[in-house]
Design a protein that fits this description.
9 strands, 7-stranded antiparallel beta sheet
C-alpha cells in the first residue's frame, strides 16, 4: 500500500512540475503585434528598433582607392580587410537576397611576370575538372577568367598589371544572380 501511495505522490509531483514548465515555456498569447514588438525592442535597445531589415535600392556607390576603382551596390554588406603586405587592397561585399558575394583584392605581384604564378590562378588551372577558363579583357588589360558550377557558382578573373595582381571573385547559389553581380561590378572597374 505504501508503494502505491508513493507512486501516486511521485506521479502528482512529476505531473505538476511538467505542467508548470509547460505553462512557463508556452505563454497563453504567443502572438505579439509589430507595434508591441517595436516598443519592447526599443526599450531593450535604448534606441528606436528597426524591424524591416530588408534593404532595397538600385543605387551603386563608387569606391576609389590608389590601387583600384569600382562601384558596388548600396544595399551591400561591406567588409574591408587590413592591408598587410603583400595585400594592397581587400574589399568584400555581400547581398543577402539573392545570396551573392564579391571579393576584390589587389596584391603586390612581387616580381611575377605571369599571372599563372599566382597561387589562386594556379589552383584553378590545375582543377580543370572543376573550373573552366578563358581569356578576359577588362579596361583594356588582358587576364584570365574562371567559372565553376559545382557546389555553388563562382565566377572569377585575375589580371597582372604594373606589378600588381588584381583578383575579382563572385560566389553565389544561382548562376544568373552571380553573373549579374560579377558583370556589373567588372564593368565599373578602373585600374590606376
Amino acid at each position: 500500500m505504501k508503494k502505491i501511495a508513493l507512486a501516486i505522490v511521485l506521479s502528482l509531483i512529476v505531473g505538476g512540475v511538467w505542467y508548470y514548465l509547460d505553462r512557463v515555456n508556452q505563454p497563453s498569447d504567443p502572438s505579439i503585434s509589430d507595434t508591441q514588438r517595436k516598443k519592447a525592442l526599443s526599450k531593450l535597445l535604448n534606441r528606436e528598433a528597426v524591424l524591416n531589415t530588408k534593404k532595397s535600392s538600385d543605387k551603386w556607390i563608387e569606391y576609389k582607392d590608389p590601387n583600384i576603382g569600382f562601384s558596388y551596390p548600396e544595399i551591400a554588406d561591406i567588409h574591408v580587410d587590413d592591408k598587410k603586405p603583400p595585400l594592397l587592397e581587400s574589399f568584400q561585399y555581400g547581398i543577402r537576397e539573392p545570396h551573392v558575394n564579391m571579393s576584390i583584392q589587389v596584391v603586390d605581384g612581387q616580381g611575377s611576370n605571369n599571372i599563372s604564378e599566382y597561387p589562386a590562378v594556379n589552383l584553378r588551372q590545375n582543377q580543370k575538372n572543376i573550373y573552366k577558363s578563358g581569356p578576359k579583357i577588362l579596361d583594356g588589360k588582358n587576364g584570365i577568367e574562371f567559372i565553376k558550377i559545382a557546389d555553388g557558382v563562382e565566377k572569377s578573373s585575375f589580371f597582372l598589371y604594373k606589378g600588381k595582381i588584381y583578383s575579382f571573385v563572385t560566389t553565389g547559389f544561382d548562376l544568373k544572380d552571380t553573373d549579374k553581380l560579377y558583370q556589373r561590378t567588372l564593368s565599373s572597374i578602373s585600374f590606376p
